[in-house]
Amino acid sequence: MQTVVYADVLVLVNVVITFLLLLSVRTFTDASSSALRLPLASFLGGAYSLLLLAPALPWWVLLPVRLLMCLTVCLSAFKIRRVKTLLRCTALYYAVSFLLAGALYALSQLTGAFLQVKNGYAYVSLSAPALIGFCMGFYALLLFFRKRVLAKNRKDRIFQLTLIDRGAEVQVKALFDSGNEVLDLYAGRPVVIVAADVFEALTGERPRDLHSTPHIAGRPFRLLPVKTLGATHLLPAFTAERLLIGSEDGDKTVVRPCVAGTESALGGRRYGALIGEKVLEESGIVL
Q: How far apart are CA 224 and CA 30, in angstroms?
């Protein structure tokens, strides 16, 4: 029995599937993107699905073709500047695609739907709304797995911070470092270590300029000793008004946190601050 495949439905369904796959990659890698890049890359992935209608290709031809397709989709979707990042996003795109293909196969066995696999693409004889709904449910399960399972077992959790002081309000992602036990020796307050650009956006001063003149414009900066990898560094620090930490229960507040600035590279685009357990304790967040 022959199955009729409508090209417009095939492309439209795969646009949605590609969009969900790219959302999954962004969720698990924190890759940078934009509101325009993801839809455009999704349409590219949908167009690639027309390969299902082409004659069957041998594996030694299909493998580089599929790899090139995944690379171009990821390059179109994300702001990638390093080969390592591109390979990580592409590998995760492949992995989630394989998981989705397995889920579609299980669905076809349970429902008796016709499943055709050709040139690395699958076609299931379900209505477009049912197939899209199934894929959205699959993505929701991935989100649940990341938030409820991975987040509890990861020591490198990322938190969204908002630092507020003297009318300035700066948002930055922070890495939770379980080994970070830095305290303000003068006030006994927990310390947030931020990158130089974040420190400058908040205070108007670069950390390197404050080692010789710790008092500028009436703001009482101080030099805080911080020990890392056996060496002690003096970081300029000050007491901010408030710190907001994003959580599942809403923003949590830390009053008068100590903020220290460093010229050292932290996490690049992934995070621009470091927080320790004392900061979370002050906010009431329990890991």
A: 31
